[in-house]
Amino acid sequence: MKHLGGEHPTQAFSHNYLTRGTKNVFMKTKVHLTVLTAAMFLFTGNASGASWPSEVTVVSPAPGTSVHSLLTLMGNLIVEHTPIERWDVQPLGGPELWLPMMKEGKCHFANHSVPGMILAYQGRWVYEKIRATYVRTVAAGHSEMFMFWTTADKQIGSISDLKGKRIFVKYKTNPLFLEMAKNQLASAGLNLSDLKSVLPFSNLSVATKALLDGIADAFLFPVVREAVEEINTLKGECQFIPLTLGQSRYVVERMGGFYVENIRSHDPRFGNLKPVPNAICYQNAMFCSHTLDPDLVHGVAKTIFDHSAELRDAQPLASFWSLNYRPVALGVPYHEGAIRYFREKGLWTSKAQMYQERIISKQSAN
Asked: In order of start, what are the domains of the chain with their CATH numbers?
């Protein structure tokens, strides 16, 4: 899985805390790691023609990332509480790769960022040839911050202070980073020409090293706890350049799938030492094809949320996959099986239904 339309934040951040592997398979009788082979795509049941296929394939980020770990733990719950016998967690690349596979029935579920999937649903950027109208949301979970990182010695206390600074904002071929940078700067009356340097970079480890070595004054990236903790250790504190509430609202009004959240200190998702008010955030969510059997989607959503407490002590992100957090994120339309579950819980509102109908009709009109 790619993140926000590009490589997942932790995918290139290879330190000792990352584990190695390609695929996690959960079975009724045992848990084991196997090598990814072509045979993994041969399902024993057709998801669109059977309520409960014996094997389900879930696309994830690279092994060692937080989301991959979360999905493997969810596999334990799915196998224990549903008729599904195998829950295969596979790192198969980004939506431009797995969306066509999903359409062909070669994978059942995938996790990705809500803003990234909005672009895929709209057929924008790298998704122009896919026109992924068949994608539906199953459930939304933990948030991630998308902020400028810096350190105290740079003396950058606001977005305005970025004027004349050297900043990493061009992440590979992912235009969303540049769009986020432009909007955060514009919220303070700045543009890219006000920076001393607008630097390209290929991954999080490159940006982190440049910040630590003094090559860059700041960089823009979704917040990854492990990288934050390394900066905390080496520099005393990794700081996130704050925005006022007005500035944050300016940004989210112009970028689909983002919202404002106040982040407490020592949040287990981010490793931040101090609170981060008015943070620009987006959610990670699980997606599937609209042709997937409603009973299967309902059963997966029900298992994840009805048993989420069983994972809280095992994975920091698990507590945010909760009915008490934000399980309904209005971005890509929800699958009818998921809607049925959230209606049962009293969480599918008239606002959600109106949004659902409007976005589907808009896509159909195009």
From this structure: 23-143+283-365 (3.40.190.10), 145-282 (3.40.190.10)
